[in-house]
Amino acid sequence: MSKTSIIEGVDYGPLAALIGQWRGDKGTDIAPEPDGEENNGYSEIITFEAIGNTSNAEAQDLAGVLYHQVVTRSRDKKALHNQTGYWMWDKENNLVMHSFTIPRGVCVLAGGEVVDPNVLDVQAAMGDKEWEIIQSPFMKKKARTVQYHIKISVKGDTLNYKQTMNLEIYGKQFEHTDNNALIRVK
Length: 186
Ligand code: HEM
Description:
Blueprint (H helix, E strand, L loop, with lengths): L5 E2 L2 E2 L8 E14 L2 E21 L3 E14 L5 E12 L4 E8 L3 E8 L5 E7 L7 E3 L1 H6 E13 L2 E12 L2 E13 L2
The chain binds protoporphyrin IX containing FE.
């Protein structure tokens, strides 16, 4: 299935390629443990839905895509991760934004310039003046996410991503990473 960037009159730019449902079962997760790390193979479904335009202060126009990601550990089919949010494109400023929340008490607003129309590359950091991470008091104290970076590449019906969360947990710094390759199924 091929996509153009104009969908029902709205120009989604680099986000158009995301719209649909994707599945992948070759995910690799490295996550923190008190005595080191755990490695998880995972499968996931990500659904992206076009939601149209928003304008801000009559000066900024955004095209938005809503998504939901559901991740299951391969070895025991346990729910491993659940995430929901938006990708937004600001055509005039050639900017993408990625806002999302995970049910640990962590919200992220990441952003980045579009350099390649087939690649979404955004980051955020705790205390950053532009792209921030917001966390519950508990998470800030015990399991803080200091930096976040994701790079997604879409080629036709194949989507690859890699993300890195720099954490401070169990009295040390930890690089929590995830990557997967997904195929468009709808
Ligand atoms: C594919 C996506 C992800 C997977 C599969 C995943 C998986 C995991 C796993 C297995 C743990 C270990 C603790 C547990 O078993 O619950 C963990 C911990 C954690 N994750 Fe993720 N994660 C993902 C994405 C994220 C993202 C996007 C963030 C933040 C922006 C994040 C932040 C954290 C934090 C702060 C912890 C420490 C909490 C703890 O271990 O008690 N994760 N994650």
